[in-house]
């Protein structure tokens, strides 16, 4: 009984045919130590946060529909951009990947469960509390965080609202959650592989998550450190980020981006793993260049520690530093190019079919590459002086995060939903979801490139009149993209409640241990480790 | 539900209430601490009480959760493979702690090597100095900040040196305790472990004295510019970790008295020892970079 639902009454209606299944009732979800239950919790939480952060994006796009101030106060607009970013990064994308890791890694490596099951539950249940604190601060006197998700000093110290301490401690506990989740993933992968599951036989999703987890353990504590300094600067009169006391506001940016840049790879490496599973399955060919994929992932992770200051080209760093960070950043294009090449080479002369997961995967490859190219443009130091803090940057990171990370999560959901629920999803609705999403996402983000090149700054609720037409198009794309995601909700609920019975291996070309067990996957998969040849 | 079979015996615990209690505890701590800090100026509100409640819940959780784990361990439910899981988990946790301290060391190095010299006009920042604070002189320790706050630097002779020796010695005594455990010499184990705890407490007592001296006689305070900031946050977080480590060792001490741990299986002891050696190494870095250099 491992349906993907939070409502136990639904869970009881269907397939009662399972022996010693899950405990019943609400407390099943609160007390669970089962990796599938916890994965389900993560995925639903992430989806709720996706809609919440999405609603905030709708507020932003509604305000920007026309020049001048129409709907919201500038301070509230700032809170929307800030909390939209925080929720999407820490509440939607990261928990979605952790949810997928929970569901899939034990099944993929032939383990009975995650290595530390109780800690797993703890990692999850911290999150709803952390985000209630963050969201509740919006309703407090003076409002919630309004300094951008990057909370640059002195915006977050001298000029921030009274509720900043709540933001700081919310970030602390979500960091604790991420670190524990990541430790669990690493230990599971290192220690729980079935006999014969050697390193170079690991599915790429497992590899990419192993490296992601390493990045998480390495940089989330740095985030904890920097929010602590913000806290003491604001409330205890320290001057880490205040030149009058010998500190430096630019130091904030260095420490923040030392966390922040690996963080963006934390949000994309698992995507690479997902795409590397889906593209071979629907091309009916093995993945081209498996080993190079592993090495490319590791190279990206290592380089991610050496590029942080490309976010800060305009802060007046010495020319040597500007050049160093420019070249290191461009180097990342090499392993990333290897990946894109390998995915395309996998499709080359494959017998491809375009079910919904494959549609999202192909869209991922194309649109993520566009985001990668605009990233290369931003990496060029002198060019960045023109693009910095404009809508060009907004377009760039939304291409890699929405049509990159989010699309890969959607692809993963469609790909593994039959395994999770035991039912096939509606292919018709899935295609509707895909085409609505892929068209609207480009209407939404592509014109932003032009806005940015023309000089429209980001995070401002008003703009010069010449940007009006393009902003209107962008907003229409935004509303359309937001509404399209409701189709996904419908697909998932429909798939949980019923539908065509899914075979153990619904995709002809799929490979991996997760397809050797029943659909829906039994509550305890692989109580006996399988032999991997 | 236990998952038992003849190949492996990886114990997957049944449903447990401790994680959700822990999550509620962390929620109360975060919400309470956040409210408390933002209420500092107004002197009203219930943040402090919520914070204390959260700490109480967490202590309750730690006791309950550890009791459950110890009972499982004593019941022989843990295989070799699980022992490895725990060890690896602990190592990665310590690595995350290293990175936490790295953030503050990074701030220290940045301030010393870049921020303060630039304010003093180094590199191509002559105009920065000229326009902002022309009389400011870049020295480290920064005893006079650009806006004129003055303080004194903490020397390394005397108390900090004693503390270094104490902590280094404690790492050695703990190692002897571990050797005693592995050779099944319970008396040596108990004595050396007890001695380590005493050294830990002595370190903390001297640290308190140092702080009092800094605040009352030297004018070295948390808000005394970047030198005081880095000094107190680095030594303060280190002190918190020593406190935690000492509590950890005290728990181990009582478990040793109860006859827990065998030469083959003593993950908790190993974890406590690793943790203690880790705070020792952090202190060495602190002593060199904060006090001596």
UniProtKB/TrEMBL annotation, chain A:
Alphabetically ordered keywords of this record: Cell membrane, Copper, Electron transport, Heme, Iron, Membrane, Metal-binding, Respiratory chain, Translocase, Transmembrane, Transmembrane helix, Transport
CDD domains: Cyt_c_Oxidase_I (cd01663)
Domain Cytochrome oxidase subunit I profile: 29-533
Record-annotated membrane-spanning stretches: 41-62, 82-104, 124-144, 164-192, 204-231, 264-282, 294-312, 324-345, 357-380, 392-417, 429-453, 473-493
Pathway: Energy metabolism; oxidative phosphorylation
GO molecular function terms listed in the Swiss-Prot or TrEMBL record: cytochrome-c oxidase activity; heme binding; metal ion binding
Pfam family, one: COX1
Protein name: Cytochrome c oxidase subunit 1
Source organism per UniProt: Shewanella fidelis
Gene: ctaD
